[in-house]
Design a protein that fits this description.
The complex is a heterodimer of chains A (138) and B (235).
Chain A lengths: L3 H4 L3 H8 L5 E6 L5 E6 L7 E5 L3 E10 L8 H11 L7 E5 L2 E9 L4 H22 L5
Antiparallel strand pairs in A: 1-2, 2-3, 3-4, 4-6, 5-6
Helix pairs in contact in A: 2-4
Chain B lengths: L2 H10 L2 H7 L3 H58 L3 H75 L7 H40 L4 H23 L1
Helix pairs in contact in B: 1-4, 2-4, 3-4
The chains are: A alpha+beta (138), B mainly alpha (235).
Organism (chain A): Pseudothauera lacus
Pfam families (chain A): DUF2170
Protein name (chain A): DUF2170 domain-containing protein
């Protein structure tokens, strides 16, 4: 099985080309599982993390933490996220370790072009989601 | 409990705990062993099934052969009787009876093989279901663990590099501000571009003696000449 780094080799160039020359950097994150951070120029605050297990490649964008959700609107937010899920292309809302995320899952043998497409969709969707859902945040 | 049900229990627990023990190494090993065992059982059952199915077909052919043979012998017996060969007919009847006994035996065996085929097919189906379930279970547990471990690495890394996760609102504002800055810069560049091109035009007009500056020079010159003329008159 290829390592994650081998699998997505050249992702920065593919992304940059698709984003009209925007600077894109890849940074491996040390730890017990493979994680690579993707930073897109102009969106440094919303990095995308790519991680792989034997069953899938996951692209994750952290949106906000539990504490940032307005207590009085929490239930409404959760329902809204569930309702939005099917309509958002390629990305879904989730929650990992008390943090709300937007993620895209790909088959473990995804090509670098597939990952690039998912990362771009995720980045656009995340920015869009932050803007659209900020009324639910403190 | 369903696989998702088990994952749910894990996810409801503390995150730290999950990172460390979603996959109880022992439990995983047991599942993996069960998967291997079930796979072996499937392989064995499949090869057994081919054997039994072959025997089933053989017995079916044998039954067919015996039936035909009985008809042939009975016809011969009838012929012998017709010709008054009672002793020969008797002998043939003995063979028919033996055939019949063999046919009964083959039919019993055939039914038995059919039963075994059915049982083996059920067994294979059940074992394959089990493999699928265990594989899903191991995969889900591993995936959950992997995701939580990744999150831990990311949090640790953010802590270690001194950078902090900024709030969503702040992130959004920063990105928007940067975007606005860019838009402003582009608008400014555009305005500047327009201005320089406008100035260029005015310069060319002035050079041709048209427009503000050329006009002013002429007017000033006229005023001066008028003053000079007036001075000469006074003198």
């Amino acid at each position: 099985m290829k390592s994650l780094q081998e699998q997505i080799a050249g992702l920065d160039d593919v992304l940059s080309a698709r984003l009209g020359g925007t600077a894109v950097s890849l940074q491996p994150i040390p730890g017990s599982v493979p994680v690579i951070q993707v930073v897109i120029g102009g969106r440094e605050e919303l990095p995308i993390f790519i991680t792989a297990s034997e069953t899938q490649v996951l692209c994750i964008c952290y949106l906000w933490s539990d504490e940032e959700v307005r207590a009085d609107k929490r239930a409404e937010l959760l329902e809204t996220l569930l309702a939005l899920n099917p309509s958002i292309p390629l990305s879904a809302f989730g929650r990992i370790d008390k943090r709300f995320v937007l993620f895209g899952a790909l088959a473990s043998d995804a090509r670098v072009e597939d990952v690039a497409q998912d990362v771009i969709a995720l980045s656009d969707n995340a920015l869009d989601a932050l803007e659209a859902l900020s009324a639910y945040l403190v | 409990m369903s696989v998702i049900g088990k994952i749910l229990t894990l996810v409801r627990g503390s995150a730290r705990e999950i990172g460390e023990s979603v996959v109880d190494a022992n439990a995983t090993r047991i599942y993996e062993q069960e998967i291997v065992d079930a796979r072996n059982a499937i392989m064995k059952a499949k090869s057994e099934l081919t054997g039994v199915m072959a025997k089933e077909m053989q017995s079916a052919r044998e039954i067919e052969r015996l039936r035909k043979e009985m008809i042939r012998l009975e016809n011969l017996a009838v012929e012998a009787l017709d010709k008054g060969e009672d002793a020969l007919a008797e002998e043939v009847a003995g063979k028919v009876a033996a055939c019949e006994a063999e046919l009964e035996e083959q039919s019993r065996a055939h039914a038995n093989y059919a039963l075994q085929v059915g049982k083996l097919k059920e067994l294979i189906k059940a074992a394959e279901g089990k493999v699928r379930e265990h594989e899903r279970e191991v995969a889900m547990a591993r995936t959950t663990e992997s995701v939580y471990r990744a999150t831990r690495s990311i949090s640790d890394n953010i802590g270690a590099t001194g950078s902090k996760l900024v709030s969503a609102r702040e992130s959004l504002e920063r990105i928007k501000r940067r975007h606005e800055d860019l838009a402003d810069r582009m608008a400014a560049a555009e305005a500047l571009d327009k201005e320089t091109s406008t100035r260029g035009l005015e310069q060319r007009l002035a050079e041709a003696g048209i427009g503000g500056d050329a006009e002013r020079r002429r007017a000033t010159m006229e005023r001066i000449r008028a003053r000079q003329a007036a001075a000469h008159k006074d003198a």
